Amino acid sequence: MHRRPSTLEEVILSPGTVRINVQGAFIAEEEKQWADGAQHDTRDIRLPNHTAVVSHIALDIGGSLAKLVYFSREPDSTELGGRLNFLKFETDRISECFHFVQQLKSKQQTLNGSKSDDLLVVATGGGAYKYYDEMKKVLGVEVLREDEMECLIMGLDFFITEIPQEVFTYSETDPMPFQDPRADIYPYLLVNIGSGVSMIKVSGPRQFERIGGTSLGGGTLWGLLSLLTGARTFDEMLALADKGDNKKVDMLVGDIYGTDYSKVGLSTDIIASSFGKVFKMKRQGESDAEDGNGMSNGDGQDIDSGSIAERAFAPEDISLSLLYTVSNNIGQIAYLFCEKHQLENIYFGGSFIRGHRQTMNALSFAVNFWSKGEKKAYYLRHEGYLGSVGAFLKRQPRNWGRRNSFEERLAP
Asked: Quick one: 233 exposed, middle or buried, by C-beta within 10 A (0-12, 13-18, 19+)?
């Protein structure tokens, strides 16, 4: 005889015998802080009812970022419980990540009651293999490597089914309506956007298939904007995009027709050609120069510096145009895979998104436009930590007690 487990009264089993209690879990909101090259995410998950020792941390090391998850007690507090902490490092500076883990190791007793020698690192992502030997040598701890796709799915399932105010939809008119944790989540499409993009069909617990992807992802945006603008970090590029006007760079339907093309459902502000105005305006500038409106006779004099300045493309406009180019492409490909595999719900994850409103709006618009509203795009507040959370939970018995995503068979 089988019985179904209770909801949040169930627990997560750690790699040892410790049980992590998620009853009453909620997302904490605090000011962002920086430490030792790490960006501390403001959205820690508070676990007010967990009391046992936790002796492991999780790392998801991707091509661009390394994401770290660890448990800690509440500092200077008499309250029970603790929290899951979320930090990220640039992979190019992976030594700073390892240095931070060393500090965690030395503070284990204070953080969660375990000894420093008990620390276990559960790693996933390509870097779990690339940096495996270095991790073991530098950290002096046991390192367990876990499959990247399995960790992504486990992390996403956990967020969808367990954490209130985690999953939401996005549009300009209704920016962030949260979805309640729910059990009926399968099947769905996970679109994980990191340096590249993977699209994974999830049919049930541990039932998934990578059905496609694209090389045009976060690394594409980061790389091209590094060449085209003065921005040095991904966050700087997103900040530029916030101030941009893509209409100064992109060719719109209205630029071609002078109005909308209602017969095929195209409004005037739909992008007809990304960066479509660049060549046209560049050619016009060269023509003006030949006619004497720009540089002439090789004398280095600015004949009309005002007209040249007006034709310059601002880094902000370039950033927004390229952001839309990449996001619209991902959104359309996601729709096509949903159509092919008869899926309705799309969950976008990965560090490319970062809660950025223009990114989410572009993805949602693309899905809604191509599906005529039949497909739904969802986002997560911890979208960049699916793999690391999955790794944190990964080495569990099959029936580890989370309420919806895994088999719910328990001994009578």
From this structure: exposed
**Three-class DSSP category at 69:** strand
**Do residues 241 and 326 make contact, with C-beta atoms less than 8 angstroms apart?**
no
Return phi, psi of residue 135, to 5°: -60, -50
pTM passes above 0.85: no
Contact partners, residue 401, CB within 8 Å, separation at least 6: 5, 10, 11, 12, 13, 19
CB 355 within 8 A of CB 381: yes
d(CA 364, CA 37): 33
Strand 178-179, strand 167-168: pairing? antiparallel
Strand partners, 83: 46, 72
The amino acid present at 218, given as its one-letter code, is G
Tell me the per-residue pLDDT of 78-88, one tens digit each, with 9 for 90 and over.
667 888 899 99
Max avg pLDDT among 30-39, 109-118, 137-146: 137-146
Query: What SS3 state is found at 114?
Result: coil
Burial of 372 (0-12, 13-18, 19+ CB in 10 A): exposed
Tokens of 6: 């209770």
Tokens of 56: 């492991």
DSSP code, position 309: H
